[in-house]
Amino acid sequence: MRSKKSFLHLIRTDKEFVKLKFNPRPYQAETIEAFNHNRFLLICWCRRLGKDMMAFYLACKECVENKNRIVYYVFNTMKQGKMMILEAKTETGEPIITETIDEKVIIKTRSGKLYHNDNTIRFKNGSIIYFVDAQNANTKVGGNLNLVVFSEMATYKNQEQIEYLIPSTLKVGGKIIAVSTPRYGSKFNDTVSKGESGKYISIIPATSDKAVDNEGNRIYSMEQLEYAKTLMSIEKYLQEYECDLNTANESSIYSQSISMAKYKDRVEWDKKRILISFDLGFNDGQSLVFSVVENGKVYPIHWYYTNNQPTKHYVDYIEQWLKAKGINKQQVELVQPHDANNRQDGYNVLVSRATMYRKAGFNVVVVPALPQLRGIEILRASIQNNDIIFENNPIITSMVNNLKKYEWKTTNGIIEFVPVHGKGLSSSNIADSLEYLAIYLFRNKYIEQVNYKNIVPISY
């Protein structure tokens, strides 16, 4: 490990020496060293470990040590950028900026401000740090970027920022630093989880042996962590303090039910009853869940999803899947939502979706409408009580992981218990296809007063 003094860099100007001022903790020093040898850094640390202070130091280091550098420092909102860096103070009341760099290396405004009205820190050697928000990626593209820092990247509403800005960094051999605590379903979580070669990844939870200060004292005592657990949901604690990449957000509708789910290593389908449950879509995404029914249990064994496809595409896919499995059409029921009788698509003639599948030789069951929240509760109960048991295979695992992304709408951190439905291929499509399956098989079990007629195939 390098000594602390080795990180007080001296940069010569024409007349004087000036400092980059930062006294890193051991784990920060390790990452600073990695910055010298890596172009893509993913920093997944728990709260209060100094992610942004270190990232800001590296941004300043890039600018002070090199002429005419262009750096983007991306925050969720510009307000957040000002609070955390531009107008932030240390515990002793000093500006974060001057506690990181000597003010003699920057160009102040006429009024003496350390940053300019366009939210930039400008250096006398021609380098610039632009502080920008993550709201609209289209306004950030173009030009050459020597370094991009993504602060709290997992919280961005626009999760495609990296893809938009990578070309601007690649062109000049630039670097990317993404720092955040985890948030399930985010681009940040997915990138860290993949662990791709060529990316430096640092994950430090509060309980890590690395989470210590320069004197070797733990940043968090066990007593502090136990107290933190009493202040928030278990999901938030695991994300914020344990850096758990697989814990769903606290607004996830099905995460707690999934935690109680059972899995079976292999499900036999030969001569068994097969259900294929749909979330019908056309321009929107469409999800199909293939399940085996046996002894009052249902076992999802396969999942297919796509969008912008006509009904014939799904007819062909189902027929090919059945042929590959050696399954006869007579074993199969297609479970479709109530709007299958009126949503139309061209096949040979313009007819309802349900009619098209029947003309293709399938037995179609159309599930009558239920209040949305009731359908959610039936599926929850079916998973928790193991009426639905998932086959343990990669496709179903992917489906379940995506189902955890189906969330309640939140406003200012308050959960409103209104499901968020997305466009394209989204978790809501998966949820709907499973909800119709649960409603068809288990609604009588979980609704005491049933006011619906028995579901039977509709003949035309």
How would you describe the overall organization of this protein?
The structure is a single chain. This protein is α/β, with parallel strands linked by helices. 30% of the residues lie in helices and 22% in strands. The chain has helices spanning 26-35, 51-64, 78-86, 96-100, 161-170, 187-194, 222-229, 234-240, 255-258, 311-325, 353-359, 372-384, 394-403, 427-446; strands spanning 10-12, 17-19, 40-45, 70-75, 120-122, 128-133, 147-151, 175-180, 200-204, 262-264, 273-279, 285-294, 297-307, 332-336, 344-346, 350-352, 363-366, 389-391, 408-411, 414-419. The strands form 6 sheets. The protein has a 7-stranded mixed sheet, with helices on both faces. Strands 13-12-11-14-17 form a 5-stranded mixed sheet. The protein has a two-stranded antiparallel sheet with strand order 1-2. A hairpin with a 2-residue loop joins strand 12 (285-294) and strand 13. Helix 12 (372-384) crosses helix 14. It is elongated and about 80 Å long. Mean pLDDT is 88; it is low at 1-6, 8-15 and 449-460.
